[in-house]
Design a protein that fits this description.
Helix content is 46%, strand content 13%. The chain has helices spanning 5-32, 47-54, 63-77, 83-89, 104-111, 142-145, 182-185, 201-223, 237-244, 249-256, 260-272, and strands at 80-82, 118-120, 125-132, 149-157, 160-167, 176-181. Residues 24-34 have a biased composition (Basic and acidic residues).
């Protein structure tokens, strides 16, 4: 039986073109995929959200428990991790600098793990122990472990969820809290895929970051003498001289009142400054 080589070649080219087109479409879909929760839409959500939801299979989750999972995802994106997950995967986690908090590798790695939290009083209270991620190896030492831990508690009151984030004992630092409307962020309807029940995730992410996670992380880092925001501290003395020479006497005095380190730099600059 004779097979036309032209037909074989054409068929091969067709399959190759189809495979290339599929690959291009997959890459385009990947590019459209949002990296964090605040950029999610009803049709496109971050991979780590889908991974976390897939752990529960066909188990029916209440609106309150779904909101708790969303809160934990914002915690992951804010540089926190559930404590047991941290102990299991800390050797694989990437360092998170003090001036940042979101690391995509860490978030996706941790979203594959079972989410450890306790449910109490018929799903009207949820509790989770969090740990703050840092880039400092010294933060893994036992004396600093409790300084980087915090207790996340969510209590359901009707359609509201009161969420608190508090330091663990023996810390005397303050805690933070916020109140969420469950129905505002999780629709009380049965939709598939389940993430289509979520709405206003940008608002949820902003509220949780501003009221809970950013204040707690900043408080913990400052207690360890780390700087959670870019600052003038830690620059070479030559750089201070370049900055200070553009400031007048009044501006230098204002800068010196920020903290004692800048005050010392100002005095040293004054001694070196030509008269």
């Amino acid at each position: 039986m004779h097979v036309d080589s032209n037909l074989v070649t054409h068929d091969t080219h067709t399959r190759t073109a189809a495979a290339s087109e599929t690959k291009v479409q997959a890459e385009q879909e990947k590019e459209k995929e949002p990296l964090c929760l605040e950029n999610a839409t009803p049709d496109a959500v971050p991979l780590h959200l889908r991974e976390m939801l897939s752990q529960f299979g066909h188990r029916k989750l209440s609106a309150a428990e779904l909101l708790m999972l969303l809160i934990y995802l914002v915690a992951l994106e804010s540089g926190f991790v559930e404590n047991q997950s941290y102990l299991e995967k800390r050797s694989l986690l990437k360092p998170v600098p003090a001036v940042g908090c979101f690391h995509l590798f860490n978030v996706r790695l941790l979203s594959h793990l079972p989410t450890h939290y306790t449910r109490e009083f018929e799903d009207t209270a949820f509790r989770m122990l969090l740990r703050t991620l840092l880039d400092s190896k010294s933060a893994q030492e036992p004396p600093l472990m409790t300084a980087l831990q915090s207790s996340l508690i969510a209590i359901v009151l009707g359609d509201l969820m009161v969420v608190t984030l508090s330091p663990v004992a023996p810390s005397k630092e303050r805690g933070f809290s916020t109140c969420l409307s469950i129905g505002r962020f999780v629709l009380n309807v049965q939709l598939e895929p389940i993430y289509q029940r979520f709405c206003k995730l940008d608002e949820l992410s902003l509220q949780l970051r501003q009221n809970l996670f950013q204040p707690m992380r900043a408080q913990q880092l400052l207690a360890l003498d780390l700087h959670p925001h870019p600052s003038l501290l830690g620059l070479p003395s030559e750089v201070y001289d370049e900055i200070f020479k553009h400031l007048n006497k009044n501006q230098l005095n204002i800068l010196a009142n920020v903290n004692w380190k800048l005050c010392n730099y100002k005095k040293q600059f004054k001694d070196r400054r030509p008269h």
